[in-house]
Amino acid sequence: MPMKYIGLDIGTTNICGVVFDAGLGEILSTAAEANRAARDGAYPWERLQDPEAIWLQAEAVMRQLQLEHPDISGIGVTGQMHGILYLDELGSAVSPLYTWQDQRGAERLTQQTYAERLSELTGYTLSTGYGVVTHFFNWMNHLIPSSACRVCTIPDYIVIKLTGRHNPVMDPTHAAGIGCYSSQKQDFDAEAMEQAGINRSWFPTVRASGTMAGSTSGGIPVFVSLGDNQASFLGSVKDIHRTVLLNIGTGGQLSIHEPMNGPDVPEGLEARPFPGGGRLLVGSSLCGGKAYAILEQFFRKVIASYTGEPVSAGQVYAWMERLAAEDSSCGGESLSVNTQFLGTRQEPDRRGQIGGISVDNFLPELLVVGFLRGMVEELHTYFERLPRDIRHNVTSLVGAGNAIRSNDRLRDEAARQFGLPMHVPTHSEEGAVGAALTAAVGSGEVDSFETAGQRLS
Hints:
Number of strands: 26
Structural class: alpha+beta
Shape: globular
CATH class of the largest domain: Alpha Beta
Helix content: 25-40%
Strand content: 15-25%
CATH architecture of the largest domain: 2-Layer Sandwich
CATH topology of the largest domain: Nucleotidyltransferase, domain 5
Oligomer: single chain
Mean pLDDT: 93
Radius of gyration: 22 Å
CATH superfamily of the largest domain: ATPase, nucleotide binding domain
């Protein structure tokens, strides 16, 4: 009997799918496309994508995988968290996807931002980009489509399209990413939402991770989608109890599993439900790998302005890597770079800075190294805020994300700051593999989410 599962990862910049053999612990096939669904908004703070365009790309990825492997046992889905789109009664999208990068919640409502006001009304700590904040802003400003009756995330929408459902279902990982989710109730907090005038009925029914949501027209089981943070953790970590995961891609995240839902959450970190029990303590940097891309764009413009000739991003990145490798022979004082160029979830107006500049050290190689160091430092700060017993229990550092994979100096910097060698999985599709493992757990092929990582080769 086949043990092949498809995992789909609906990312902000890429849409990826894998066929994962849960028996062998190996990826059999991979298909991916750049996410081409970004759309311009009417306001500078909008970050929008077209859900139908995303579905068409996801469908193409699915079709390619199934042509190669028709004997699929189940489908799992993951993807970008926090963002929402609106649906009508038939489950059709009637709005763009308002992504996790959308900044409408940072707009001012009298003396407070919308995110601050909603946090005050509900008693939950909420940030701009969270779906409930986006919905609150849209409701207050009469921006909800007239035919809309509910919201969901983009991975939940892909599940709707795969199964033909009209009503979305959502697991706790996505519900917590939307906001106003109560881990005690294992549901959205209807009473808290009502304090802000928000009706609970706008939000999906919550079901346990690994629950079957329906089947494709061909009879393949499809399971409730999982948040990309949790999926990436599942798809890259073998021992969930002793590992810290550093994921640097478009954004950046530090994630560590806590088996019990403790009463307190360290400052600046979030507690996110983990499938099967416990929670992930997560520290997020909004800029992450984009900080390095900002520096690349700066150098590229300088070079083009001086030479009058265009230069590719790949050429500039290669030059930056050579500069970073040469840093040890520079002998100058280091630069201090704060890479919070997009602010933080708690302080969206905060901005990055470059410090420690002297007459001797304002050099391109030190600027490159300073950016890399700053990217890691922002995440390591979250690690230092964890309780001592959790930090001392960590024996493994795992790296994931395109920035980690493509930059030797970034990996070395992470190993230096955390005091552990960094292990990077052989596969780069961590989220998609985690989604496939979710389907394997849901179908009973894998015993539990706790042991799912042991299936990784």
